[in-house]
Amino acid sequence: MSGLLIRPRIRPRVAVVLVYTAAMCMNGLDSTIVNPALYTIAGDFGRPLSAANTVETAFLVALAVGLPVAGWLGDRFGTKRVFLGALTAFTIASAVCGLAPDLNTLVVARAVQGLAGGLLTPVGMTLLFRAFPPHERMKLAKVLIVPTALMPALGPPLGGLLTEHLSWHWLFFVNVPIGTAAVLLGVFGLREHVEGPEGKFDTVGFWLATPALGLLTYALGFGPSQGWTRPAVAVSAALGSVLLVAAVLHQVRAKTPLLKLRLLADRVYGSASALAGVTAAGLMGVLFVFPLLYQASLGASALDAGLSVFPEAVGLMLASQVVDRLLPRLGPRLLTVPALLVAAAVFATLAIPGVAENAWSVRGLMFLIGLVLGTAVLTVQISGFESIGPADMGQAMGLFQIVRTLGGALGIAACAAVIGGGHVTEAAADPGPYRTAVWVTAGLVALGAVMALRLPREAPQPPPFDDEDAPPPGEGLAADEAPAVKG
């Protein structure tokens, strides 16, 4: 008994929240934090900027490659094992990135980071959503907002500050202590859950879907800056599109598909997934193009432009404090549709001549974007999985992340194409094309408001008292700590 009394106890739900937040903050930051340092990295290694851009593209392509298989791996080997394995790989790769002696080493380590990140996001959200039944997920708003929206917004200004005052190596070194602590906490605090996939591994689906997503992400990453007719880009886009169509046809016919596309037929989940893709396109597009408009209008520095979007993060944090209170009263549809309409109007206001020239107007509008768009994004994330059972949670999370990732890449590519492919890294004298690109993002968010009409009116309702996934406080302590193994 004495040994039991002195053994530190970590409640599984607390451990899930802490480990998930730490891991996803690392992953979210690393998707944008490197951008301000690319010039410095190119200079340190004596390479052109076009070569240094592969540091970011390698991360995004590898992340897309890891997404299709994430759900199957979590079901087959256990969500705890796969998540902590990916987090360990991400942390080690971060250390290698910081110590990289040349650009090639940095690119390879960055690709490993991306591959691990592609597993972390869907498997991590599966862990989180399995720990909290639908009626309790509204409490997760404060957790979900940080890695999914706040960290990518903080990436550019934080990257600029670290590069300017320390060095670009610290963009990666900061992950090491956080990742190490999260892995140790996860080893002792997380519960294992092995769902057991149905049938054999879908080899055909893997070899169709994985290269399809990688090739399309590559094309979307390089097409706007290098030209869509460049052989590598054109071939990647064409081959990726063909493989994607073939993958979809295979998945809908296969008995045990790698990706359960049939889940998209569910009205709530399918609508939420499509809406996540459209809102990601609008948000990532405006975060990409507005700093360029800010520079074009005011002649501001890259760091100042990155800081101009910081008030959005404050608005996001405020949104996370109110969603769990508003969602039970208003329901997903009534909360999301007005929020997206206001967000579209704010995006459009940013494109009006004279607005970007006023720094305080920009700060106020960015705060409002974070508040209303953050409310919509959180509502979609929480309510979209209401009808998904535990057995399908891993697959559903994987599909959701694939749609959102491709949506964000498409939004950036669309804005870059409107700006003009050869000048996306420079501030142009004429801000007109940048304003047009902002209008495009406003249109995407407005489209999301129309799609949100398919969301349910009512918020998730509490299940009967004997729901095994939600033991009453103070009861079922042993069951709360026991591994959940099925299949």
Structural write-up:
There is one protein chain. The protein is mainly alpha-helical and 487 residues long. 73% of the residues lie in helices and 1% in strands. The protein is built from 20 helices and 2 strands. The protein has helices at 2-6, 12-30, 38-45, 49-52, 54-77, 79-99, 103-131, 141-165, 170-173, 175-189, 203-226, 231-253, 267-298, 302-308, 310-330, 332-350, 359-383, 393-419, 432-451, 477-481; strands at 193-194, 484-485. It has a two-stranded parallel ribbon with strand order 1-2. Helix 5 runs parallel beside helix 7, helix 8 (141-165) runs antiparallel to helix 15 (310-330) and helix 13 (267-298) runs antiparallel to helix 19. The longest helix has 32 residues, at 267-298. It is globular and about 55 Å long.
Keywords:
disordered C terminus; about 0% strand; globular; 2 strands; two-stranded parallel ribbon; mainly alpha; about 475 residues
Task: Give the count of helical stretches.
Answer: 20
Fraction in beta strands: under 5%
| Annotation, overall tally of beta strands | 2
Flag low-confidence runs: 1-8, 421-428, 462-487
Structural class: mainly alpha
Radius of gyration: 22 Å
Determine the N-to-C terminus distance: 34 Å
| Mean model confidence by pLDDT | 74
Compressed to H and E, one letter per element, the order equals HHHHHHHHHHEHHHHHHHHHHE
How is the largest sheet built, in terms of strand order?
1-2
Helix % is over 70%
Which descriptor suits the 3D outline?
globular
Largest sheet properties: 2 strands, parallel
How would you briefly describe this protein structure?
It is built from 20 helices and 2 strands. The protein has helices at residues 2-6, 12-30, 38-45, 49-52, 54-77, 79-99, 103-131, 141-165, 170-173, 175-189, 203-226, 231-253, 267-298, 302-308, 310-330, 332-350, 359-383, 393-419, 432-451, 477-481; strands spanning 193-194, 484-485.
